[in-house]
Specification:
By secondary structure, the chain is an alpha+beta fold. The protein folds into two domains: 29-103, no CATH class; 112-368, Beta Barrel (Outer membrane phospholipase (ompla), Chain C). It has helices at residues 6-9, 11-20, 32-42, 52-66, 74-81, 92-103, 131-138, 145-151, 289-293, and strands spanning 112-113, 117-125, 156-169, 178-189, 200-219, 222-235, 245-257, 260-269, 296-304, 307-315, 323-332, 338-346, 358-368. It has a twelve-stranded antiparallel barrel.
Length: 371
């Protein structure tokens, strides 16, 4: 049986846009009984440093998330309750996510989202990078259907990301400093391939160890709310000449002001020995990766109503300015789903494509957003 055809799958993003134009009724405020029930069930799993007032606020956020098409805007919250719900409106955007994480930090039955979790049934590349697969195919006398399909890459494919983190140790330094184990899976699926196999052409794995600190100091009107230090490994899990991997020491500092949030993430690549021959498993698979992937990443997001507009920038600080840019827009479509539109241009869309200049447009749904 052949794989799905493009026109049929296009119904998925079209349906997303259809639902995006219909606003659901504004959520009702939770009753005292609902808040008390939530408090009783959450007091044993919440962060030890949370106060009763913070627990109540978290329970309210959880109720609104479960009974609305999206979390209400600041204006909707003011109309519904007669007064703003945030004592510090500058901390409104990230406060929602950080509060929900604190509410369930000690609950071992809940996986905490890390980066975005999404599925894009349509990810279209204007110039697919076939070079790595051509090199592999020419080195074999007989090629499988999967290898032939990868040589003949389709412009359209499916893309998804799963990202989670698990608390290892809480409050390492008095009432701050949480140690997490994080994992992110980023996959690219040639679902529209004419070959029967419809192979996954690339799956990038990113385990990391995170030490996270909350903060509240200000600079130039921006409040620094979070600082993270990470030991990061990224690999596509392949061997031979298609192997791609690198190790980094990273820092991530998050700032916010009003409806705008941004994060600066510089890194240092841990050196590896040179390869003695192509495909040497003990040598560096990609010694020039920093030249293309850059030496830092900037992520910014702006919330307008229930819409989130975001930008990602990477650069190598060299004269040729290699790096990447991504523009995105997400919007609510149901209680726990958001639509997503993304445009990517540059290097490093995936590890196998780290040195290929790509232009990618994608449509899909987001399961967990930035906040």
């Amino acid at each position: 049986m052949r794989s799905f055809r493009l026109p049929a799958v296009l119904l998925i993003p079209c349906t997303l846009f259809f639902f995006a134009h219909y606003a659901l009724a504004a959520p009702q405020e939770p009753t005292a009984e609902a808040i008390n029930t939530c408090l009783q069930s959450s007091v044993t799993t919440a962060d030890e440093s949370m106060t009763i007032a913070e627990l109540r606020a978290a329970c309210r956020e959880l109720y609104l998330q479960n009974h609305a098409s999206g979390v209400p805007t600041l204006e909707e919250e003011t109309v519904a309750t007669g007064q703003p719900q945030e004592t510090n409106p500058e901390g409104r955007l990230l406060n929602r996510r950080m509060t929900m994480e604190a509410l369930n930090r000690s609950n071992r039955f809940i996986l905490t989202p890390h980066k975005r979790n999404y599925f894009s049934p349509l990810s279209y590349s204007s110039r697919p990078n076939t070079a790595p697969y051509l090199s592999e195919a020419t080195g074999s006398e007989t090629n499988t259907n999967e290898e032939k399909a990868l040589v003949d890459l389709k412009h359209a494919e499916a893309e998804f990301q799963f990202s989670t983190k698990i608390l290892i140790y809480e409050n390492l330094f008095d009432d701050n400093g949480h140690l997490y184990m994080g994992y992110t899976n980023h996959s690219f699926w040639q679902i529209y391939s004419d070959e029967d196999s419809a192979p996954f052409r690339e799956t990038d794995h990113q385990p990391e160890l995170l030490l996270s600190f909350t903060n509240d100091w200000e600079i130039f009107g921006f409040r620094n709310v979070l600082n993270e230090f990470a030991l990061n490994h990224q690999s596509n899990g392949k061997g031979g000449i298609q192997s791609r991997s690198w190790n980094r020491i990273m820092m991530n500092s998050v700032f916010e002001r009003g409806r705008f949030v941004f994060a600066l993430s510089p890194w240092y690549r841990i050196p590896e020995p040179e390869q003695e021959y192509p495909g040497d498993p003990d040598g560096d698979d990609n010694p020039d990766i920093s030249h293309y992937m850059g030496r830092f990443e900037f992520n910014g997001a702006y919330e307008k109503g229930n819409n989130i507009f975001n930008i990602m920038l990477r650069n190598n600080f060299d004269a040729d300015n290699k790096g990447a840019m991504e523009l995105g827009w997400s919007f609510p479509v149901s209680t726990n789903l958001r639509g997503q539109v993304k445009y990517f241009n540059g290097y490093g869309h995936s590890l196998i494509d780290y040195n290929a200049d790509m232009e990618v447009f994608s449509l899909g749904i987001v399961f967990t957003d930035l906040f």
